[in-house]
Amino acid sequence: MTDTLAIIPAAIDTYRQPVVYMHEDCHICRSEGFAAQTRIRIDLGSRWLIATLNVVMRGGWLNVHAAALSASAWEALGASEGDRARFSHPEPPASTSAIRAKAYDGRLNEADFAGIVRDTLENRLSDLELAAFFAACAGERMDTRETVSLTRAMQAAGATLVWGGRAILDKHCVGGLPGNRTTPIVVAIVAAAGHLIPKTSSRAITSPAGTADTMEVMAPVALDTAALRRVVEAEGGCIVWGGGIHLSPADDHFIRIEHVLDFDSTGQLVASILSKKAAVGATRVLIDIPVGPTAKVRSAHAARVLGSMLISVAEAIGLHVELHRSDGSAPVGRGIGPVLEAMDVLAVLRRNADAPADLRTRAIDLAGKLLDMASGSGLRSGRDLAQSLLDSGAAEAKFMAICAAQGGFREPAPAFQSTEITAPTAGKVAAFNNRLIARVAKLAGAPRQKSAGVRLLVRSGDRVEAGEPLYEIHAETPGSSNMRAAMRRASQIS
Where is the Pyrimidine nucleoside phosphorylase C-terminal domain (predicted)? Predict the structure, then answer.
């Protein structure tokens, strides 16, 4: 068969971008005119996908009679070594006309956005085409009507959980604060109060840890929809990875491109948040917006614009949303990285004397507001209830029950290697740069190395003497000199 090749796994991680590797002398490349970056349709039995071609040159690692697939492509096709796949040119993506229209400041409707979402999920759109779409929508170039349409299109592309008309609570933080791991504590408190809170969370893409990464060091998070429902029906809450249950599935593709571009569209951020909340079946949602000079939201004006859009779109899709503006000037807690953040969460739940007070206070504030939203009475007594559930140990017991229902609790283990970074001179801690602290944690190995990261030893306002420790860098591999080099490289990044 002239249009088929044997396929092998390339064992290359390209995240969610399917990639196919072919030899430059491959007969299919020659006959079809395939060249580097060509979009190629690959059919294997009843499954198919569209991948981007990378060409392996003569003398390289690939045989001329085989094609290699990246890890994501191999998994998506359900391939086995020795399979033969068919390679052809795909139909051009219909949604490119909508992207061109948006680039010229046109207004898109729900059908336009649905086409872009569909072509994204089928990998019909290249990264360049998606980047053009995000650039056309950057800043505030999407109006409320368009944002509602995109939100609905993103939700409709995946599953939506239905809970029989019951009130379903949820919370979300727009991000930008290292260590701000309030979610496991809030879920435990709210579930201990007898409410339903099925929390789906993301893994980190460019941050030192996502909520799913932190939770995963304590309990399994890769649950399917049926397992999620069993946990919530049994315990009232869960903290699971959203990528495993097909809720607003285009969002991860969008986030991958947005992080490379390093800018956000307000409309796309709102659609990302609210499509996931609608898909999980939430009815009442609290959204935390940390504001600070090195947080994701950097000014009061930006917070007002984002908050107004969130409320307007939520009303249009039938969600009750309330906002909580918080201090985003510094990291929260002491640990930054999956294990270190999990240790902070457990210290708060276990009421340890040395538990980080800022993480405890934030979690109680958020849980209290959610409990007020749940009561619907207009009374503001939720914070007292949240604090009593935490102080009594009820929240800890509920958290352990949730972990058990998700597959069993694991005690997080600290890293084998650490090194202290000390103050070069005496002085007062005036401010933190959230982005640089996060960069140090990532250079140390987080989040792939679960116990890697940064442990803060000072807070804003503290006075330190020369030589006193400021923070520790934790790593799973030896070599404190390497960790110090990582710290020095991070300090040069603005």
Answer: 428-494
d(CA 414, CA 452): 8
Question: DSSP string spanning 334-353?
Answer: SEESHHHHHHHHHHHHTT-T
The verdict on 84 and 192 lying in the same domain is: no
- Best CA proximity match to 150, nearest among 203, 200, 102, 198: 102
The CATH number of whichever domain residue 112 belongs to comes to: 1.20.970.10
pLDDT at 489 over 90: no
CB neighbours of residue 480 within 10 Å: 13
**Is residue 258 situated within a structural domain?**
no
Pick the catalytic residue from 170, 213, 264, 365: 264
Query: What confidence tens digit (pLDDT) does each residue in 207-249 have?
Result: 899 999 999 999 999 999 999 999 999 999 999 998 878 889 9
Counting the structural domains of the chain, the total is 4
CATH for 306: 3.40.1030.10
Residue 182, domain member (yes or no): yes
User: Considering only CA atoms, which of 262, 261, 242 is closest in space to residue 252?
Assistant: 242
Per cent of the chain over pLDDT 90 is 83
Which residues is 5 bridged to in the sheet? 85
Average pLDDT over the chain, rounded to an integer: 92
Same domain, 293 and 431: no
Residues 272 and 332 in one domain: yes
Is 264 one of the annotated active-site residues of the chain? yes
Could you tell me if residue 257 is inside a domain?
Answer: no
pLDDT at 382 over 60: yes
Q: Looking at the structure, tell me whether residues 328 and 202 fall in a common domain.
A: yes
The full DSSP string for 23-79 is ETT-HHHHHHT--TT-EEEEEETTEEEEEEEEEEPTTSSS-TTEEEE-HHHHHHHT-
CB neighbour burial string for 396-414, b if at least 16 within 10 angstroms, e if fewer: bebbbbbbebbeeeeebee
492 has pLDDT over 70: no
Domain boundary among 384, 406, 428: 406
If pLDDT is split at 50, 70 and 90, which confidence band does 285 have? very high
252: in domain: no
CB 199 within 8 A of CB 171: yes
CA dihedral 244, 273, 93, 121 (to 10 degrees): 0
Q: What is the band of 378 on the pLDDT scale with cuts at 50, 70, 90?
A: low
Q: What pLDDT, on a 0 to 100 scale, did the predictor assign at position 481?
A: 41
Among residues 125, 156, 187, the one where a domain terminates is 156
DSSP 221-268: ----HHHHHHHHHHHSEEEEEGGGTTSSTHHHHHHHHHHHHT--BHHH
Mean pLDDT of 418-439: 94
Domain boundaries, position 48: 4-88
Separation between Cα atoms, residue 244 and residue 233, nearest integer Å? 19
Structure tokens at 215: 């939770």
For 56, residues 6+ apart whose C-beta sits below 8 A from its C-beta are 21, 22, 23, 24, 62, 68
